[in-house]
Amino acid sequence: MNLLFVLAVMMVAAEAAPGLDFGFPSIHSAPIFPAPVIPSPIFPAPTIIKSFSAPVISPPLIKAPIVAPSPFIKTIAPVPVIKHVAPATSYASITHYAVSPVVKLSVTRDQRMTVKRFYNKILPAHHQYVDLNKVLWSKNRYLTKMENVTENGKIYTVMSKETPVSPDLHNLVGVKSRSTVYKKKDVYKRLSIVLAILIVILFIAFIIALAEYIRASKMSKTICVSEECIRSAANLKLSMDLSVNPCDDFYKFTCGRWSNEHPNHGWYPHFSSFETADEKVAISVLEFLKSNMSNKYPLPVRQAKDLYLSCMDTATLDKLGYNGIIKYLHEVKLPVMPNFFNKTAHADFKFDWIKVEVALKKTFAMDNFIGLLVDADIYNRSRNVIYMGTPDSPCPLPSPVKSKNNQKIARRNNVEEKDLEKEKLKAEAYKRMVKEVIKRLSLNISSKVPNDLLVDEAANVIWNITSDLTELADINSTNNDLQFYKFKIDELQSLSDDYVGKNNLSSKVSWRRYVTVMFDNVANVTLDLNSTDYIYVPLEEVNYLPELAAYVSSIPDIYLELYMWWITTYTMILSTTTEMADLVARESEPFVTSTTYRSRSLDCTSLVINFMGVAVSYGIVDKTFTQSIKPKVETMLSDIKSAFIERVKRLKWMDKETKQATLEKTKEMISFIGFPEWLMDKEIIEQYYTNITMRNDTFLENMMAMVKLFTPTQLESLREETERTWKTDPTTVNAYNYFSDNSITVPIAILTQPFYHLGLEVLNYGAIGSILGHELTHGFDNIGRRFDKFGNYKQWWSNATIETFENKTQCFINQYGNFSIPTIEQKVDGQRTLGENLADNGGLHHAYLAYKNVVKKNGEESKLPGFQNFSSKQLFFIAFGSIWCESIDRDSLKFQLENDEHCPSSLRVIGTLQNSHEFAEAFKCPLGSNMNPKRERCRIW
């Protein structure tokens, strides 16, 4: 109870009986003792958390006692008078006496005796007199007169001469008789009763107030009311479907309403918690790019703003037209319009496709037919080598086709009959878009417009080559060996020539020439293809290069030029006029996964992030991160590592030597958290982006200035020593395990809600903690286990341990291989998704064990508002499930099942928790329920 309410009760009583001393201050006096400060219980405001805020418990209503005015004070008379009641008058008639409470009635001894003698003349001798001086305590006043004694019926009035008041003289009032109780005693009795009642009320009020204080203190300690906790509670509650039994479908229980609260605006085929975090990053960068930048910022940061402004300046883009396309077509040795539209050139046309392929790689950083990469030697990470295989690097320039996955527009394998019609419609839409772009470009960059028949034929040729190359490069392998063949260049050529010859073709491919031209004029690199420089090819892609050589050799040069002209032009058209951008957006709608486009400002922001992620990170990262957040994340990762180490020590299926090597690798694993320390160094940032020139009115040229640095920088690293360092931008919403570095990278962009900063450690460990555990476990999954503590690919496990491990993985392969999506009627590939499933299961388990250790050390945490009925263990799993909430359309889901090494998010949650004894125990799931099936749980790590 609020103490102020208790005081109010007391004050009401004081006001009801002025002059009575109840032993406590009046409403205008200072407190005798300070009232204890009792904080009100702090509850989430209903406007913030709607239906799940903690109930506000009102104190019991205590009504103030209705205290009647004192019987001695009926009215306040202007002149104090003493009235006496005749003997027959009852005691109650005392209410007729009018005495001012602010006048002290007193007489001298002589006057008192005079009054007494006067009374004795007319009243019975047995009358007594009661002193009112103690009853009516007030300021000193003067009695005015006592001259006349007037009889007025039964009422007698006594007046006196003006006499000074003396504090020890008394007012005298006659009382009925000797048998009547003294009036003074009656007053004290009434006062005692009132005082006793008030003491009881005060005591009760004090007990209630004390109990409320204790309850409020406990409440403030047991319920987290920080801004982070309130936000986390709101996000979780709004996403969860509490009507679902968590033991039936925990994903629906956790994420059942997530899609309603996080609508996909149309530009993401797959919208999840990762995309929501990505949007937050984009908005932060956008606000920064719009801000005023002084010269205190490093030059690359200001250049990032120039890139943004040039992207937004559509008026200048329209004015420049297609001049940029013409310029860069010439730079890669392609004509303004392909020779395909010149029929007379078809017969004897010769085209050096290798030279153009290299030019596209160096100028646009784009793989077209061949993928080439310089990276650490998988067998000896101290040096870099050349890797070749399928094309894996799409051009970084903006395009309606966002990734290699989306380029698979028409798949000829495993296409269900009901989808064939849809694929045909996509093919027709793609060809229609090609024709419209060719016509529009020819009107603006060429003096001749090709006829419709040639344009139709060109569109068919481009479509056929696109779909053929897609199918050729679609190595949908489930081989997890990750082995590489080391070829000398002549060995690779011989393999290709044999395959071409078997198809009765004349080879157009020279691998030696391709690699030599690629490294021409690369600083500090002199190739030795005859002895020391090998070509590394993934085992599963060994057949691709010979098959590509045969395919290219089967295509007329005039078609090759047409196709490469189209790929190059298509790469640049979205960076030209708004008219062309609108045309492409409209015509490509049927075959791209995005049905709508974001605002241009957000598209331009994303482009700046892709090109200059490090520069914009300088502007948006929290400068206190290194001191405040980073140590906490490092501690969490250390806790998870410790839990993993303890788990390894208890393993019975791993022999002693392998166990020791595993522990050593775990301890050697390094982490990169947040962003590189040099990010805050102005000089290093400027060195990182050296030799870049940008203007705020040349969009395409600005991007090309960046793109041209990508490939040469990578090629120059061939002779450089390798080092374990940052390999991704801080703006990336993801986390990584780099096998060859034996390292974990956690960019700052993922260290935000809904993954981190969740208010309670149980939520942090369930969310970002399970991700850290996921990446840690990747180092020991079916692929990561093949890399030793130095990051070299080698066998460092015993044969017996390998055999046991592979037998144990079969449990996961079978479990996930039996999962299917009802709307697609297609099962998960348990072999292809094995590595990710092992990481999910191990990561969650180690994060859980780490959190249990935190609780042992620090004790239980506060409750989350609105989740008081959930245990901390349950909250841990709810936090885990919540990070995998998503909204995904059927086509994207089908594509994921066919191509991705990750399971659909719903199955990641269900599959992982079905294997968790701790989860079943936390939610008391009965044996045989969906989330606690009657089978052996799959567990390795």
Features of the shown structure:
941 residues, alpha+beta, Neutral endopeptidase, domain 2, 4-stranded mixed sheet, 3-stranded antiparallel sheet, 16 strands, 7% strand, globular, disordered N terminus
Task: Describe the protein in words.
With 941 residues, the protein is α+β, with helices and mostly antiparallel strands. Among the domains are: 3-67 and 193-222, no CATH class; 82-180, no CATH class; 313-597, Neutral endopeptidase , domain2 (Neutral endopeptidase, domain 2). Helix content is 47%, strand content 7%. The protein contains 31 helices and 16 strands. The strands form 6 sheets. A 4-stranded mixed beta sheet has the order 7-8-10-9. The chain has a 3-stranded antiparallel beta sheet with strand order 1-4-3, with no helix packed on it. α14 (489-502) packs across α16, α21 (630-650) packs across α27 and α25 packs across α28. The longest helix is centred in the first third of the chain and has 40 residues, at 183-222. 37% of the residues are buried. Mean pLDDT is 78; it is low at 1-182 and 399-415.
**Helix content estimate:** 40-55%
Q: What is the straight-line distance between the termini?
A: 54 Å
Low-pLDDT ranges: 1-182, 399-415
Strand content: 5-15%
What is the highest CATH level, the class of the domain at 313-597? Mainly Alpha
Signal peptide: 1-16
Transmembrane segments: 191-211
Subcellular location: Cell membrane
Membrane topology: Single-pass type II membrane protein
